[in-house]
Amino acid sequence: DVLGRHESLRTIYPDVDGVGYQQVLPVDEVVPDLTPVPVAESDLIARATEIVGTGFDVTTQVPFRARLFAVTETGTAAEHVLVLVVHHIAADGFSMGPLTRDIVSAYA
What is the rounded CA–CA span in Å between residue 72 and residue 48? Predict the structure, then answer.
């Protein structure tokens, strides 16, 4: 739903003969894998930092990534944490408000 309404999240910027252009991908080509990944609460910040700290190659990759962590306490999932990273080519301070509202609504 969110990807369908926010084309910037599914736009790549390939280079053809030295000229860059925008290519909006179909929604079904960019759906993130949101299979919950178990993580201990003590490891959550390190795992989120890995996701946030990885760069983007917007010539071949969409400018966002997502990971859903199932935070575990003594072997049982207590809560989930959704980590989203959006490249500044796709979102800025102004557009993060509507994007965040759409994500929260879709997540709920």
Answer: 15
Structure tokens, 11? 């736009």
CATH of the domain at 84: 3.30.559.10
What is the Cα 22 distance to its own chain's centre?
Answer: 19
- What is the rounded distance in angstroms from the CA atom of residue 16 to the CA atom of residue 108? 41
Q: What is the average pLDDT across 101-105?
A: 91
- Identity (one letter) of the amino acid at 3? L
List, for residues 81-94, the tens digit of each pLDDT value: 999 999 999 988 88
**52: helix, coil or strand?**
helix
- Residue where the block lists tokens 């053809």: 16
pTM (predicted TM-score): 0.83
Number of domains in the chain: 1
- How far is CA 86 from each of CA 2, 31, 35, rounded to the nearest angstrom? 13, 14, 19
Question: What is the chain's length?
Answer: 108
Is-contact 31 60, C-beta < 8 A? Answer: no
